[in-house]
Amino acid sequence: MMQLCQIGAGYGNGLILKNISVVFPKGKVTVLVGPNGCGKSTLLRVAARLLKPEQGQLLLEGERADTMARKEFARHVALLPQSRSTPEITVGALVLHGRFPYLGYPRRYTAKDRQ
What we know:
Helix content is 20%, strand content 25%. By secondary structure, it is α+β, with helices and mostly antiparallel strands. The longest helix has 8 residues, at 40-47. The protein is globular and about 45 Å long.
């Protein structure tokens, strides 16, 4: 489960998100709906630790996400932004990228990873 508690975040001098709290239950689909510019992408960037909140905290399984190692956090959370162009890649290859945090160096997939 992921919780965003009393989040305030934005870019430059202004906060886009003010005092936002939301829970993303484990194993459930959560939908963010709202008009352009209301902060949906900003909220997701905070949840993925791509944008540091100016206030509040992000909890993952009850643990403060800012204290987790990047690799450990990446084993639980990923973000595929809608606005980023992707090279020609199969869906299977894209999904396989989710194994990156579990691979050592050099990053070579095993049969188990492909399974």
